[in-house]
Design goal:
Layout (H helix, E strand, L loop, with lengths): L10 H23 L3 H5 L11 H22 L5 H40 L14 H8 L24 H10 L2 H9 L3 H21 L9 H23 L3 H4 L2 H16 L8 H12 L5 H6 L2 H8 L1 H23 L9 H38 L2 H7 L5
Length: 393
């Protein structure tokens, strides 16, 4: 594969991102919105319990896609202008929606304050305390909420405010160094890419074994987790770009094995490490054009659309969840879903998912795209605008 192909948008990966975002949402909703669903399903499958692993899929996918987008820019050198353009492009991609969601959560806390003042009603926790403290808000505004600088040496932290956004913080901090990693990676020979991939994979295994026994953690180790998985994505892109193993990834059996392996790891609750290689195979096998049913599904416009709004789905679903729980508590004076029957549970789940998709569509059209366009056009030259918006990263 030649370098000219690196500017092409890989539609199937957009679709995968949408599916992964929906699965993360279901993981949260099964355990936090309607907390009886998850434990009820566990005797039959642990697939949804392990839904946090789709965040690791995001980390690998981001490494792959960003390498696809920027490899020509940073293959020769990392100049001040190119790094500035990259930095602005990343800010334009993630910060406006992140800031908007913080505004919504902040407004929600203000409404709780007003509610208490005017009605004397009781709430589970006082406004602007705990995970919604003003001190934690500062870290969120700076996108460093993956770390708690008051708890060295590991800076372990509870998720705060828009809680899934911890991963956005981890990615942001790691990807400040991405151009330099990519520059070094492009200087390596193809055989070295396999070595780097192997080292990253073994390092993740050691990280799991010597920390928590799984990948569901925050703090300093979450940055290591994100960085190593980003390196996995970067190295498999170099393998993809070389074209040497294209025939292997084009086999339908490779795609089927990757999907089946991911399902088995999550379903049987095997060690998280065993999901990493299938994630990589899934990305590689769907990146190669084919005409099978799965590829046709990933090319279906509604699935592509979920991918386009995936960042909005990821960033809005926790707000919908917390708002639903608070409103239900105020209106009915009981926790949401605790006395639901099966039909009521499914109905509430369906309603919340529909609200998330609707809200995500609005934030994508009214926040994400306009702000991204405005910031890039205001701060980037035409040279970099043209080079950086071809990939929906």
């Amino acid at each position: 594969m030649n370098n000219s192909q690196s500017s092409k948008h890989i539609v199937s990966l957009t679709s995968l991102r949408g599916i992964a975002a929906l699965l993360v949402m279901l993981h949260h909703y099964f355990y936090f919105l309607l907390p009886r669903i998850g434990p009820t399903l566990e005797p039959y499958t642990m697939f949804f319990f392990n839904g946090y692993l789709w965040v690791d899929f995001f980390f690998i996918l981001s490494g792959f896609v960003l390498t696809h987008a920027y490899i020509k820019t940073f293959s020769l050198k990392v100049s001040q202008d190119s790094y500035r353009a990259y930095f602005i492009s990343r800010i334009a991609r993630i910060y406006p929606l992140h800031l908007f969601m913080l505004f919504l959560f902040f407004s929600s806390e203000l409404l709780r304050l007003v509610y208490i003042a005017y009605t004397g009603g009781e709430v589970n926790a006082a406004p602007f305390t705990g995970i919604y403290s003003l001190s934690s808000l500062i870290g969120n505004l700076w996108m460093v909420q993956a770390l708690d600088f008051s708890s060295p040496p590991l800076f372990d932290v509870l998720t705060t405010w828009n809680q899934p956004a911890w991963s956005i913080s981890a990615e942001w901090l790691v990807y400040l160094f991405f151009p330099f990693l990519l520059f070094d990676l492009t200087k390596c020979q193809n055989k070295t890419h396999f070595l780097i991939y192997g080292i990253a994979l073994v390092s993740l295994f050691l990280l799991i074994i010597f920390t928590y026994g799984h990948l569901n953690f925050l703090g300093l180790w979450s940055l290591v987790r994100c960085a190593l998985e980003a390196i996995l994505g970067m190295t498999i892109y170099k393998i993809y770009q070389s074209g040497s193993y294209r025939h292997f990834f084009s086999f339908n059996s490779t795609l089927i094995i990757s999907i089946l392996s991911i399902f088995l790891v999550m379903h049987y609750d095997w060690n998280d490490w065993f999901s990493l290689l299938p994630f990589c195979l899934l990305i590689l096998s769907t990146s190669v054009k084919r005409g099978d049913a799965i590829s046709n599904l990933l090319a279906w416009q509604p699935i592509i659309y979920f991918g386009e709004i995936s960042y909005s789905i990821y960033m809005t679903h926790w707000f919908v969840q917390e708002t639903a729980k608070r409103v239900w508590k105020i209106v009915f004076d009981k926790d949401l879903g605790m006395d639901f029957n099966f039909l009521q549970t499914l109905t509430m789940l369906f309603v919340c998912v529909v609200i998330v998709i609707g809200m995500a569509s609005l934030t994508y059209k009214l926040i994400e795209m306009p702000s991204r366009y405005y910031l890039k056009n205001k701060f980037l030259t035409k040279k970099y605008i043209g080079g950086f918006i071809k990939i929906k990263n």
